[in-house]
Amino acid sequence: MKKIIIVFLFLFFLLLLFFLPIFFRNNFLIKKLGEGVPKPKPLMVYSFQNLQKTKFPKNQITLGRLVEENPDFLSQMFYFSVPEKPGSDKMKKVSGLLNVPTKPGEYPVLIMFRGFAPKEIFFSGIGTSPSAKIFTQNGFITLAPDFLGFGESDAPSENGFEDRFQTYLTALTLLSSLETLNTGLEASYSGEIKADDKKVGVWGHSNGGQIALSVLAISGLSYPTVLWAPVSKSFPYSILYYTDEFDDQGKSLRKFLAGFEEEYDTELFSPPNYYEWIKASLEIHQGASDQEVPVWWSDELVDLLKKDNIEVNYIVHPNSDHNLRPDGWNGAVLQSLEFYKKHFNNTGEL
Question: How far apart are CA 163 and CA 157, in angstroms?
């Protein structure tokens, strides 16, 4: 029995001598081969250069329930579908709030992008309704998308950065789908109220301003645009700036960002690198006392835009915060209205 064990150990030792070099050699080869295979980077489809090459679908805009009825305007839910990812055939529903004048006619259209809103207090039209109502009372149709994860919209990506980038898909798909708006209006208003899809403007506040700037750059559209206190700094600084408002002071975000930066070049996702692509005329309103978007951000943005020969009118409102309160809001909404009327030659009379 002892001899059998010795023979067995001897044979096992010989097998190790034979197979170990093969094992390590193969592992080395596999590692070397693996080094030559690029790691998948699924979020690259959201880089500005790739989004610029993407064709966004023209999906039907449909109208839903009535939210508010006034003598001069109606507020109503609207819906459309957006790709789950750039180029994807899988669609997700997005809701939003539409405002239309009650008087029959054909009206210019304003697409309005809100700023940040906590989900626990969110309602369709938050951040846009006060100014939207003024615009609508003066002869404009307004549409404010909720974005994925808000209102009656489908859920966004579980990846936090993709969730952020999907706002571009929502905005760009809505713009490409405006040709279908009159079909939706026909169903509700029997053709008495129509959209002039040759007269389209953009409005954005805070992070909605960042979305507007990004979308204008990606699309190259020349839609006249008004921005109120736009977030305009580079990515990811533009989100790291607000981490003091997080419960964990941004610890989890910074950890997630570190992983993102290991895989991706953040410069490819940073809006200021592509502002030179903008072809639209802009008007920017900024509160001098704004603590959320410091006035120097907008100062630098305007300087950068002017260096790229982009037409921009810059208005700073004294004694005004991020929402242009208490002294700037009335002036800002009236000046914004005049800006759009000038570009659309619209009297705004109802």
Answer: 5
- One-letter amino acid for residue 78 of the chain: F
Tokens 């839903």 correspond to what residue? Answer: 64
Count other Cβ atoms within 10 Å, centred on residue 47: 20
Asked whether residue 127 carries a pLDDT value surpassing 60, the answer given is yes
Cis upstream peptide for 86 (omega within 30°) = no
pLDDT tens per residue across span 280-337: 999 999 999 999 999 999 999 999 999 999 999 999 999 999 999 999 999 999 999 9
Give the residue among 157, 183, 192 at the shortest CA–CA distance from 45: 157
Q: Are 176 and 58 spatial neighbours (Cβ–Cβ below 8 Å)?
A: yes
SS3 293: coil
d(CA 182, CA 20): 73
| Mean per-residue pLDDT of the chain | 91
In angstroms, the CA 315 to CA 301 distance is 13
Is 173:79 a contact under the CB 8 Å cutoff?
A: no
Query: What share of the chain in percent tops pLDDT 70?
Result: 88
**Bigger pLDDT: 333 or 40?**
333
251-263 and 160-176 helices, crossing angle to 10°: 70
Joined together, the tokens standing for residue 18 give 């034979």
**How many C-beta neighbours within 10 Å does residue 106 have?**
14
Strands (E), the chain: 62-69, 73-83, 91-101, 105-113, 141-145, 193-205, 225-228, 282-287, 312-317
Spatial CA neighbour of 134 closest among 99, 181, 176: 99
Side chain identity at residue 331, one-letter code: G
Those residues with Cβ within 8 angstroms of residue 89's Cβ, 6 or more apart along the chain or in another chain: 83
pLDDT tens-digit map of 241-263? 998 877 788 888 898 899 999 99
